[in-house]
Amino acid sequence: MIVYGGDWNPEQWPEETWAEDVRLMGQAGVNHVSLGIFSWSMLEPVEGRYEFGRLDRIMDLLAGGGIRAYLSTPTASPPPWFGQRYPEALPVDADGRRLWHGSRQAFCPSSPAYLDKALAVAEQLGRRYRDHPALAMWHVHNEYGCHNSRCYCDTSAAAFRAWLAERHGSLDAVNDAWGTAFWSQRYSEWEQILPPRITPSYTNPGQQLDFHRFSSDALLALYRAERDLLRSLSPGVPATTNFMAGYHWDMDYWAFAEEVDVVSTDQYLFGDDPHIDLAFAADLTRSFKRDRPWLLMEHSTSAVNWQGYNRAKAPGEMHRNSVQHLARGADAIMFFQWRQSKAGAEKWHSAMLPHAGTDTKIWREVVALGDLLGEAADVAGSSVEADVAILLDWSSIWAQDHPAQPTSELKPVEEIKRWHAALWRLGVTCDLAHPEGDLSRYRLVLVPSLYLVTDAGAANLERFVAGGGVALVGPYSGIVDEHDKVRLGGYPGAWRELLGVTVEEFFPLAAGETVTLAGGGAGAVWSEVARATTASVLDTYASGGPAWTRNEHGQGAAHYLTTLFTGPERVLSAVCAEAGVRFGGTPGVELVRRSHPDGRSFLFAVNHTGTDAVVPAKGSTLDGAEVDGELAVPAGAVRIVREAR
Ligand code: GAL
Ligand code: ZN
Questions:
Q1: Which of 39, 66, 250, 381 satisfies CB 3.0 to 4.6 Å to 149 for a cystine?
Q2: Is the pLDDT of residue 645 over 80?
Q3: DSSP percent split of the chain into helix, strand, coil, nearest 5
Q4: Contacts of residue 130, Cβ cutoff 8 Å, sequence gap at least 6
Q5: Is 365 a known active-site residue?
């Protein structure tokens, strides 16, 4: 089945509401809820005193209604007694300010007191509900790091030192990795090492990078501790924790994905083309565990309440969003939250059941979506077809995030999203891949912006090309090693040979400045003086010098760009053609295919335009209408076709 539902937070409502909730869930086709995410102060109102009566009744109601629970450990939001009793466990920011309780996620990720209390409540929950018929999966915590991803307190400082000792082996090795001989930063005792707290000038880049890595690991360790406990109490019950893939970059989700049984994520609309940004988030989430379905744990039926200006969704938009996720590999479509709050911090956030009740656009769309997903049950378990991958790595993003760079305008995540968006416009579905990951299934690998690459990552791309793949590398990639140390001898040090290019100097462009390209269009943000050693030059700056090169390497070829092409479609369509990746289609109409190993496949069509469209398809629609070559997709509509191939 396709899972359908949302966060149910019944503790904010009187008990009389609960039965109505479950009845309406049935009406909407809801089959799962995420439960208890913010229930810690209900379950443990006073330290050490547990009260499960209300949750017992809630779980029983769900079981009675045939609805299953992703039962959450409530550890994302410790109750006020925690801050009162353990003030040293509250998080501290880089300026040294203590953050108090009164919202959520007020805890230091490295605090032993927090871990202790979190495991205690998780254990109570695990013991009580491990055999409950409503339990489907453990939803551990909620969005690790959403508000407290980096803590700069003394406890975190000590944990950082222990992490460094483990990673580097010795203080000398830390000094060497960070290049502390410069600016007189050499550490002579471990105790001198601090988190990168506020300093008179730039902090050391190696220190900052390692602190980002440590902070992500500290959160992951919290997840593992809860998961291990739950696993021991309930062997066989899967566990997940919901990511914020595509819009929160403090947690290394490649590493998190290794530890969850099922990948799940939350996604909210951003930017000028939010449906393309959505596609990016979905593609990234799918890529964490390739060929395994993932769960969209949260999105919104309409407006959120945390973006300053919060746009409500147009009629049909929520269906398009949902089907986009489904098309890109989600086997669950869920929302924050089931019933819109009457009080509290999120009362202006949309929900499945709005303030105005059931005679509303939102409710009608929620019910219709339940029907649609009910009919799409055989999609579950299928995987998405993609021949292209974009390399992405957190260490590189974090390293480039240091303020002392050639320009602050070259932003890796934006550049990766810009190439992904161009592919989306070309109608090409792509994965994201770890630089050291298995690339053998792809025809084309793109490297829009990968400042830091390990030796293993550098060799991986070379192997891919040597074996017959086509690669396209953007500027300022392959520049530093895993410690953020420059690879010497000419840029891009890691891939000079692969690309057949050597670069002497960077010439970042001023804000708004562009350079004209001989082949048409312009470059922005960045330029460099490159010399083609073995590469051929495909485009130049109007003033001379390579802008786009191509180098044959083994059985394949590697392209390189020395500036940010303002219309990357020109280059991307060329490399797609060279790699044998099909592109084209109807502008604004998203087409994605999912297929089962036995050959059954589904074509998803989402028309994001205001014009009716017709796309090629063969098979039958979910409601059984035959499609013989042409599928009508009206303006703003979604269609799913069971293909006859
Ligand atoms: C998520 C969070 C939810 C809710 C939602 C609102 O970050 O997990 O609890 O706050 O945002 O958009
Ligand atoms: Zn701390």
A1: 250
A2: no
A3: 35, 20, 45
A4: 233, 234, 237
A5: no
